[in-house]
Each structure stands twice: as structure tokens, then as C-alpha cells.
């Protein structure tokens, strides 16, 4: 009896691994639903329970793969015959359940359509996620443009139009080790800072940059000369489509009621909770063009 109790059970081992990987999958799914956008997570070195966004993503992917592998092993090694007999018997029994089958197919097709076209409740669920994602970082903590941490200080000086030599000199006086040819991320890590903290020092010392671009605190606006952002004066690739009208108004310092009235004047019915991609799709506009309507 004792030998049987202490004998290693492959079935129990696989079942326990399925359970653990399933729990990991659930937790990581919830975290990825609320994790801030990459531009914010990387700029501020965002972490939750000691893990950054990339680590949570890896945990979710590997955890999901582990669950699938252990599930397949559990099915094939220990339950295939039972499973197959059950499926066959269920199919035979439910062959006449045509109404239920049709209803199930229609329901799932509707779910796909609702998600693809961003209709309610999919739009609301995604808006909730966007609100939470963007709530981790305040406007003042955001990068001057998307993934600025990967640009060198030389590149940023050109994009934000400030005196590079003067910036390096002043940063040096602050006992910061600076290499203009290295990225903001490298320079920040060299000084044991986040990119946001490093740029906070830089922008506070450069009034010229503040006048040109809001000192990196332009609430999503930068002086750009490329692409659609140049035409509107807005930052392209900043995740505008995921943001709601209220979120953008808060960033730009505009009353939501005013923005909604301006959109209405252009034939666009909007609510504070509508995201810009949803409104843009209905009006045949890009999210940036929707923002431009209530900025002017």
C-alpha cells in the first residue's frame, strides 16, 4: 500500500501542471488587459508584482503554451478513449438538435462580428481596458512621443528643437553621465533612472524645448514634420484609436461637452466613453482627424 502511495503518478503530475498553467493563464490575461501601452510602460519602467510588461507577456504566452501541451498530453495519454466515445455518443444524440446548433453558430458568428466591427458590448469592454491602461501613467509622465526611450539624445534634440550642447553641459553640471550618441534608455539606466525621470530633468532645464513641444509634457502633442502627425500637429502612433473622447479631452485640457458639440457639428454623434477608432470608422476618418475636429 505504501509503495502505491509513494509511486510517482504521471496522471496527477500532468493534471496539476494543467491546473497551475491555467491559473497563470487567467492571471496574466487579466494583467495584460490592464497593462499600460508599451510607450508608457517602457518610458516609466512600469512593473506589477515585480514584472514588467514584456515579462507578463512572456508569462502569458509560455503559460498558454504549457496549458495546451499538458492538455493534449492529458487527453491523449489518459482520456482519449473515454473522450472519443463521449464525443461520438454526443454527436449521435444531438444530430436532431438542429435548432440549438443553428443558434450556437449564429451566436458565435455575432460575437465575431461585434468584435471585428467594435460594436457594443465589445467597444465598451475595450474602452474599459483602455481607460485602465492609460490610467497607470499621468499626462506629465508620458514620453514626448511614442517610444522616445529608443532614440538617442541627438535625435530627440532635433525632434524637439533644443540646443544639444547646452543640454549636455547642464546635465553634466547635475552630475549626470550623458552620451548624446546613446539612447535615452541607456543614458537613464547609466544614471539609475527611468527614461521618464531622466527626461524630466532634461525638460526642466530646457525652457526652449518647453516652448516648442511642451517640454515633453505636451499632452500628446509634438512639433512633428512627418506623416499625418505633421498635418494635424498631433503625435502619430500614439494609440489615439484606443482612447475615449473623455481621455483625450483630459489630456488636451478640453471640456468633453465642447468636444462632443464640435463633433456633432461635423455630423458625428459621440459620447464621452466612445473611443476614437469607433468614431473615426463611422465617419470615414482616422483617430487623429477626429481629435483635430475638437481641437480647432
Task: Explain the overall architecture.
With 296 residues, the protein is mainly alpha-helical. It folds into 3 domains: 9-96; 143-213, no CATH class; 227-295, no CATH class. The chain contains 16 helices and no strands. The protein has helices spanning 2-6, 10-34, 38-44, 53-93, 98-116, 122-135, 153-160, 164-173, 184-190, 195-204, 207-213, 227-232, 245-252, 256-265, 276-283, 287-295. Helix 2 (10-34) packs across helix 4 (53-93).
Radius of gyration: 26 Å
Poorly predicted ranges: 207-233
Broad structural category: mainly alpha
Domain module count: 3
Beta fraction: under 5%
Helix percentage: 55-70%
List the keywords.
296 residues; mainly alpha; 3 domains; 16 helices
Which helices and strands, and how do they pair?
Layout: H1 2-6, H2 10-34, H3 38-44, H4 53-93, H5 98-116, H6 122-135, H7 153-160, H8 164-173, H9 184-190, H10 195-204, H11 207-213, H12 227-232, H13 245-252, H14 256-265, H15 276-283, H16 287-295
Helix pairs in contact: 2-4, 9-10, 14-16, 15-16
In short:
This protein has 296 residues and is mainly α. 66% of the residues lie in helices and 0% in strands. Helix 2 (10-34) packs across helix 4 (53-93), helix 9 packs across helix 10 (195-204) and helix 15 crosses helix 16 (287-295).
